[in-house]
Design a protein that fits this description.
Layout (H helix, E strand, L loop, with lengths): L4 H4 E2 L2 E2 L9 E8 L2 E7 L6 H4 L53 H10 L14 H6 L4 H8 L9 H17 L8 E5 L1 H4 L12 H12 L5 H15 L13 H4 L9 E6 L1 H12 L2 H6 L13 H7 L1 H14 L3 E6 L16 E2 L6
Helix pairs in contact: 6-14, 8-9, 11-13, 13-14
Length: about 350
């Protein structure tokens, strides 16, 4: 199948994989040096209706601003879970007791790396067993604790991640000194926000699966999820209140690892996206709101049109890390909703250049 000009280039924008499923081409309109689009969705509806806020989630299903803080600046659409049909609610399997404990020396290393305790808002403290289950290494935890690197990065990778972030900003005409850059998500906090509760049992995991995928899992998945819970928790009854990093991938509830979210706040970015939007009537026709009405960040398609190097940077690092790198941009005040506004505990990314 040939390339789709509307999917591959919209307003000169590199359309990311997250937007790709929602639009297909019927026509393109050239406005000056800008390629804008009149697109339809796969079901024939106009793309301006389907990608109303260009967040990657269909219009009408995007999350509230409270869902913007961790593990994705915009959460998946709200889905009503049916009250019946959960195949894991009646599964006959019982959770097996874990046969093998962590080696005492390894457990001691994890305990040292997790001291002081790392807790979610319910008060649950991440345990060595939790860390090992989701694939966190002692080295990652040490680097995270010292702020050398978020989990999911080696220190060398993180150094290159930061260097290339600001190099891309410079290439896009931005001054690094004018950008407040912060990382959000469970890679920097080890837990998702309270709006993402950890499913306490296999039946709850199946409900989360439904919310993520829009359908119930197959019956064989229930057998697998029982085994995964058993291998993780054994006969322990305590559960996290919020999702540890990569836990939904560990349980096979989602197919992807936790996101790394990059929050860029700058009046220079504000001026750039505003100018790009106001100078392009075709872009205005395609994009309903310059500012996402739910989460308050600048529309991602407009941002990508204004700052193609930063957009390419996020795509390239998504490929490198095997997890989605998402940029959300704001004016210099940063996000204004209570959950997402600047906090002293934020992972701030200092510019390595002037």
């Amino acid at each position: 199948m040939g390339s789709n000009p509307c999917v591959d280039s919209l307003a000169g924008v590199r359309i990311t994989n997250r937007l790709r499923p929602f639009i297909s081409a019927v026509a393109i309109v050239v406005v000056g040096s800008t390629v804008a689009a009149a697109c339809t969705s796969e079901d024939g509806e106009q793309a301006t209706d389907t990608v109303a806020d260009a967040s990657g989630a269909p219009a009408g299903g995007a999350a509230d601003a409270a869902d913007f803080d961790t593990d994705g600046f915009q959460a998946a659409p709200d889905v009503v879970v049916p009250t019946s049909g959960n195949p894991c609610a009646t599964d006959p399997y019982e959770l097996p007791v874990v046969a093998e404990e962590l080696d005492p020396a390894v457990r001691a290393e994890y305990e040292a790396a997790l001291t002081p305790a790392v807790t979610d808002e319910s008060g649950y403290a991440l345990t060595p067993t939790d860390a090992e289950a989701v694939g966190l290494t002692v080295e990652e935890l040490r680097d995270w604790r010292s702020r050398t690197a978020p989990v999911g990065f080696t220190p060398a990778q993180y150094g290159e991640f930061v260097r290339t972030l600001f190099a891309a900003a410079i290439a896009d005409g931005l001054r690094p000194s004018a950008i407040d850059a912060r990382l959000k998500g469970s890679l920097t906090t080890l837990f998702s926000g309270p709006h993402k509760p950890f499913p306490a049992d296999p039946a709850a995991a199946a409900e989360t699966y439904f919310k993520e995928n829009g359908e119930w899992p197959k019956s064989w998945w229930c057998t697998q999820i029982y085994r995964r819970y058993g291998a993780w928790f054994g006969d322990a009854t305590a559960r996290p209140g919020q999702r540890p990093v990569d836990s939904m991938f560990t349980l096979d509830v989602t197919t992807g690892l936790s996101d790394i979210d990059v929050q860029l706040s700058s009046d220079e970015i504000r001026d750039g996206v505003t100018s790009t939007y106001q100078s392009d009537p075709a872009l205005q026709q395609f994009v309903k709101d310059l500012v996402n009405p739910r989460a308050g960040f600048y529309d991602r398609i407009v941002f990508a049109a204004a700052y193609p190097e930063l957009t390419a940077w996020s795509d390239d690092w998504s490929d490198t890390l095997g997890r989605r790198v998402a940029i959300a941009s704001f004016d210099a005040r940063g996000p204004q909703n209570e959950q997402s506004r600047f906090k002293p505990t934020d992972w701030i990314v200092p510019s390595p250049v002037g």
